Automatic annotation (TrEMBL):
Alphabetical list of PANTHER family matching this protein: METALLOPROTEASE PMBA (PTHR43421:SF1)
Protein name listed in UniProt: TldD/PmbA family protein
Domain annotation Metalloprotease TldD/E N-terminal: ranges: 26-90
InterPro entries, alphabetized: Metalloprtase-TldD/E_C (IPR045569), Metalloprtase-TldD/E_cen_dom (IPR045570), Metalloprtase-TldD/E_N (IPR002510), PmbA (IPR047657), TldD/PmbA_N (IPR035068), TldD/PmbA_sf (IPR036059)
Lineage top rank: taxon: Bacteria
Signal peptide annotation: none
Family per similarity comment: Belongs to the peptidase U62 family.
GO cellular component, one term: cytosol
Domain Metalloprotease TldD/E central: 119-223
Length: 448
């Protein structure tokens, strides 16, 4: 895999080629990655995989017309052909008054802070195999586990580089280590499966394999013998591992391109109080060892901490250059970029602040409710805010977690859900989006 300096050099070369062939402006991105993973099942090695990829993409502007093209051919003659074709395509493209590069005064400058995203430790295949065996062994050792879907361990590295004709040129590297287990409990028609996993930047930050494996086994065994629940409106409590998806829907709907396309249920709610006044949602792209940390976005704009929801109210839309121009807004450092195509919008490390009550206190007054640990289906409409998902989890009876339930549907609208959301105090930082356990009263639940 190429390093950051070489990736940036290729990007600059490609931008220069495009300008020489008649482009008025251009930017180039390079992405490279390598990964190695080992999977085991029932104590035996099942697969060993290693992958490497390198891609470079070019976006050119001829007046207000633009095109984008990408390749995995890094040879000088290949890059020359790529630049020529991109300029030819741009001349034939429709005009777009909003597309363009970020201004020089909006770009990141100065020293790159050390966010410690790249671990110097690269585990060997033997070490990955041992970790995968250990996490599966721990899961299978839980009483009630009857089979295994396997254990896996992986390590990955990546490089991102961006160069623009306005003078920006930076690269950064990162890495990750992951460990997971998935097992089966129960027999016959009552088989249940569940999992546990962790992904971190540094190997030393991974919990012990026994912790992850035991968690996978215990989660699975708890699901055996599910019942149903009477249909009706009731309190629904979201486990953090599924609750972060609700905040993910919020972030998608705050995307300025969605606002510009009039494809978000948040349009017209900019000044409304969406959540309880105690709710805050924060973002910190500069978190050391954060899973989504970055110093600059996909257009070279500086990233920084931001309050997305404060006092229950939105802190503004998440923009890239095109949507900011269309809506007359400033840049927020949220441009997301693949190796090809125009930039989109993406968030970094996001979390909801914890509340003041424990999970036990949060559910103490619920006579009959649902504790959701699993969601499936795609029944979320971000244009209208309608929400309907298949769910599984546990029944709440008289303030206590009761038996498992499955084949249930929960429904509501995202504005109503946000307004009723009450967080507990059990926030942990594990993912790119983190939330505490939270409760939403009055959701429609369809069971028996």
């Amino acid at each position: 895999m190429i390093g950051g300096d070489e990736a940036l050099s290729r990007c600059r070369e490609l931008v220069d080629l495009a300008i020489a062939r008649g482009a008025d402006a251009a930017d180039a991105v390079c992405r490279a990655s390598s990964s190695e993973s080992v999977g085991v099942r029932l104590g035996a090695l099942e697969d060993v995989e290693r992958s490497e990829s390198e891609e470079i993409g070019l976006r050119v502007f001829v007046g207000s017309r633009s095109s984008s093209i990408h390749t995995s051919d890094f040879a000088p003659e290949g890059l020359a052909v790529l630049a020529e074709r991109a300029v030819e395509m741009a001349r034939l493209a429709p005009e777009d008054q909003y597309a363009g590069l970020a201004g020089q005064d909006q770009l990141f400058t100065g020293e790159m802070p050390d966010l410690d995203l790249l671990d110097p430790v690269e585990p060997s295949p033997d070490a990955l195999r041992d970790a995968a065996l250990a996490v599966e062994d721990a899961a299978r050792a839980v009483a009630g586990v009857t089979n295994s879907n396997g254990g896996s361990a992986s390590s990955a590295r990546s490089v991102f580089a961006l160069a623009t004709s306005t003078g920006f040129g930076r690269s950064h590297a990162g890495g990750s280590h992951s460990l997971s287990a998935s097992v089966v409990a129960g027999e016959g028609a009552d088989k249940q499966t569940d999992y546990s996993y962790r992904t971190v930047r540094h190997l030393g930050d991974l919990p012990e394999a026994s912790i992850i494996g035991t968690e996978a086994g215990e989660r699975t065994v708890r699901k055996v013998g599910p019942g149903s629940i009477l249909s009706g409106k009731m309190p629904v409590v979201f486990d953090p591992r599924v609750g972060n998806g609700v905040i993910g829907h919020l972030l998608s709907s705050m995307s300025a391109p969605s606002i510009a396309r009039k494809a978000s249920f948040l349009i017209g709610r900019e000044d409304q109080q969406l959540f309880d006044s105690s709710v805050r949602v924060l973002e910190d792209p500069l978190r050391v060892r954060g899973l989504r940390s970055r110093v600059f976005d996909g257009e070279g704009v500086a990233c920084g901490p931001r309050t997305l929801v404060d006092g229950g109210r939105l802190g503004g839309w998440l923009t890239n250059v095109a949507s900011a121009r269309q809506l007359g807004l400033g840049l927020t450092g949220h441009a997301g970029r693949g190796s090809g195509g125009a930039p989109g919008v993406s968030s970094s490390n996001v979390w909801m602040e914890p509340g003041s009550v424990s999970v036990a206190e949060l559910i103490a007054d619920i006579e009959d409710g649902l504790f959701v640990t699993g969601l499936f289906g795609q029944g979320v409409n971000l244009v209208t805010g309608d929400y309907s998902r298949g769910a599984s989890g546990f029944r709440i009876r008289n303030g206590e977690i009761a038996g498992p339930v499955a084949e249930i549907t929960i429904a509501g609208t995202l504005p109503e859900m946000f307004k009723a959301l009450v967080p507990a105090n059990d926030l942990e930082f594990r993912h790119g989006i983190d939330v505490p356990t939270f409760r939403i009263d009055g959701m429609a639940v369809a069971g028996q």
